[in-house]
Specification:
The protein is mainly beta. The chain has one domain. It has two helices and twelve strands. The longest helix has 15 residues. The chain is globular and about 50 Å long. The two termini are about 25 Å apart.
Length: about 210
């Protein structure tokens, strides 16, 4: 669904394609690494939103990720069986808390024929919307990037709705994300996820992905 003028999914390694086509068949183990300046902000986000929204319970300590992460995917199709999008919920096994719960969909931004991944995370009185640009890495991996840019480009947007009939407020925000899904030298599927503000890294999540038998 992401194929377009700038992306050819046939160039991806088999394991990479299988993960995104059969996400629920993969088990997630991870390690987290915070930048020293960002850890207090991660704690604040978790404290404000984790219990209220059952969302954004970020892994702050090594023990939070010791048992890995669960992955629950629910896809929605139209009457012809074509995929519209999927909700993807990931929880920390150690605590049961939800780290990320969002809606994932392939869309083409206005003025382009190349689909991007649109991710929507619900927030109080609004939502965070992230558009990720797909690329094929030199080793047949998948890279998804939320880069710097202008209004209407790939990137992160905060949308606020105060109620029925009220104006909707939207602004591009300096949240930068990158995902690199690749097969390492030992034939193990891995993902590096880097989250930052402007060009400064804040959190790095490193996943080891294992296919579930059966």
């Amino acid at each position: 669904m992401l194929d377009g003028p700038a992306f050819d999914s046939s160039a991806l390694r088999r394991q990479v394609r299988d993960f995104y086509e059969q996400t629920e068949r993969w088990q997630l183990e991870l390690q987290s690494q915070w930048s020293a300046w960002a850890w207090p902000f991660g704690w604040l986000i978790s404290a404000l939103f984790a219990r209220r929204l059952d969302q954004l319970s970020l892994p702050l300590r090594a023990k939070d990720v010791a048992d890995g992460m669960t992955s629950q995917l629910t896809s929605v199709v139209d009457r012809n069986g074509r995929l519209i999008g999927s909700s993807w919920r990931r929880r920390l096994r150690a605590t049961g808390a939800t780290t990320y719960s969002g809606w994932y969909q392939a869309v083409a931004l206005p003025g382009t024929r190349q689909p991007s991944v649109r991710v929507v995370f619900p927030l109080p009185n609004g939502r965070l919307v992230v558009f990720l640009r797909p690329e094929v890495s030199t080793v047949g991996g998948l890279t998804l990037i939320s880069p710097a840019g202008g209004w209407g480009d790939d990137g992160a947007y905060l949308v606020v709705e105060r109620g029925s009939g009220s104006p909707v407020w939207a602004r591009r925000i300096p949240v930068r994300e990158s995902f690199h899904v690749y097969v390492d030298a030992q034939d193990v599927l891995r993902t590096d996820h880097v989250l930052g503000l402007w060009s400064v890294p804040a959190l790095r999540l490193q996943y080891r992905l294992s296919a579930i038998d059966g």
